[in-house]
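Reading a protein record of the kind used here takes only a little practice. An example makes this concrete, so a full record is given next.
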Amino acid sequence: MRAFFALTPPPSSKLAIDAWREKAFPHFFSPVKASNLHITLAFLGEITENHLDALSQYVDSHLNMQCFSITLDYVGYWSKPKALWLGNTALPKEQLELVDCLQKAAATCGIKMQKRDYISHLTLARKCHENPPAALIEPNFTFQNTELTLYESVSSPHGVLYRPILSWPFSPRFSF
């Protein structure tokens, strides 16, 4: 199975991002479905059931994360995969800690990930054959992250579906 770890915006944020995308970029050929919106933390590629068991055990024993917020506030474009995405100018330390933990988890479990610098992103559209003009309305979406999710990427005749396999809740953050 093709798998990846991600943060998933709450449904209200997914709907707000989808509505903003329709206003800011009205003519897309392949927008990502609102139900598929997520922030990738670690793309694992093809993994086996043994990898899945080992990853689950590793994350169970090493994850100790409190809820944290992310603000998506700029638009990016990658020409090679032809993808338009939202990013966050300020990466929370918790997000970077998660990325580091998940890279260690993959290495410990024998999963070879591509060596790339981490770029936080939420893909808005694919098959954008040229860099779209600047957004008509600047993005500014803040939401609370409450869990880590391991997804399976499933291809179908109707497009890609990201099916949650496992999730790990973060501890609530209390303020006095």
Observations:
- The chain has three helices and ten strands.
- The two ends are 44 Å apart (CA to CA).
